Prior knowledge:
The protein is mainly beta. Helices cover about 10% and strands about 40% of the residues. It is built from one helix and ten strands; from the N terminus they run H-E-E-E-E-E-E-E-E-E-E. Strands 3, 5, 6, 8, 9 and 10 form a six-stranded mixed beta sheet that branches. It starts with a helix and ends with a strand. Residues about 1-25 have low confidence and may be disordered.
Amino acid sequence: MTRYVALLGGTMLIGLGSLGLSASSLPRLDQGQVMVHCRTGGTDAFVTPKKIRISVGDTVVWRTAGNVVADSLMISLKHPEQQTWPFEGPPPVGGTVVRTGPATQKDSVQYNVTVVCRKAGGGTQHELIDPDIIID
């Protein structure tokens, strides 16, 4: 019985190791979701998570959190002259939720999120956020 438990435990460790699990892994989001946050107080606009890891075939959804103007979310490549968009269809543009098509190739994507946020006391402010996606 003890040999069986040791064998089973070793098999599970090998299985987990083959999944590439480690403390330094980026969050893996199957059909990933990224939250977009406007500037508040002394905190700049940001996304959570800032870096994600997805697989070929997955999509990414960006959702705004907080005080955002409708039709204000736009995703674009940071260096369009050096990179191609690795998802089916064009980079998404829209309101408070936008979605990519499925990822079509392995890539490390440097992209921008542009969002128009409402300011306290009235008016709006354009925010540019610079996160990354790794597709493998």
